[in-house]
Design brief:
Length: 251
């Protein structure tokens, strides 16, 4: 599959390009955002031989990306905002193994599906600075497959697959930087080991937006996502961070 096709099959972000505090209106203000995300991916899985860690740089993410799908939407009415976000990433890559005498390399395949929703309420809106806070839920489905390529021993396969929902606290801040520029930060944290939730998870997204016209905006920024959990007695963690670029359309 070519880089263009592999790169991002309609990639979208978190709907951060929408103004978080519009004037009171009887109608919902809706926007959709399309983003490209180049995440550095770090994962670790416990095996019978010890911890196997993988580290994929943001520069190599394009080569490792098999499929990427991301969609986002944002809606606002008065002080209330709703955010929806979906992303799916399928990454596969090879690295040197920490057990060099008996294994030649470690193959890692990581797939992550995330579907998140937030409800935010405006707390502050003055002099171009806006602050919203609220609650959310993030459903995550992850599959980490690790294969140690054997030299003196047979190949060893270890995997950690799981699906769960994390409750979240969310905070969004934005600042107007002139008539066309806006800086936005969205942060969430949660999990707390509640029921089957992650022991801990957090995310932060920073975006600088430029308004092109009445409906279109262009954005650039950075996104970081982390979770730490245990499934069937196998501890594992995943950390993804990297730059993003995109556009937003306001209806």
């Amino acid at each position: 599959m070519s880089h263009v096709n592999r790169l991002f099959v309609l990639c979208a972000g978190l709907g951060l390009c929408v103004s978080p505090a519009l004037a009171d209106s009887a109608d919902w203000q809706i926007a959709a955002s399309s983003y490209m995300w180049f995440p550095k991916t770090e994962s670790s899985v416990e095996t019978s031989l010890g911890t196997v860690s993988s580290d994929l740089s943001a520069r190599d993410a394009l080569d490792a990306l098999d499929v990427g799908v991301m969609l986002g939407v944002s809606a606002q009415r008065g002080p209330w905002s709703l955010l929806g976000d979906l992303f799916y990433l399928d990454l596969s890559f090879q690295e040197r193994t920490p057990f060099g005498r008996v294994f030649s390399a470690v193959d890692t395949r990581t797939t992550v599906l995330s579907v998140a929703g937030y409800g935010l309420y405006n707390l502050y809106d003055r002099d171009g600075l806006v602050l919203d806070a609220g609650l959310g839920l993030r459903m995550l489905s992850s599959d980490i497959e690790v294969t140690l390529q054997g030299v003196a021993l047979n190949d060893r396969d270890t995997s950690a697959s799981d699906t769960w929902v994390d409750p979240l606290f969310a905070l969004r801040a934005s600042a107007h930087l002139g008539q066309r520029w806006r800086a936005v930060v969205l942060a969430d944290a949660g999990g707390f080991g509640i029921d089957k939730a992650s022991d801990r998870t957090w995310q932060i997204v920073t975006v600088l937006t430029y308004r092109i016209g009445e409906s279109w905006s262009a954005s650039g920024g950075y996104r970081h996502l982390y979770f730490d959990r245990e499934n069937d007695g196998v501890p594992y963690e995943l950390e993804m961070s990297g730059p993003l670029l995109g556009v937003s359309y306001r209806f």
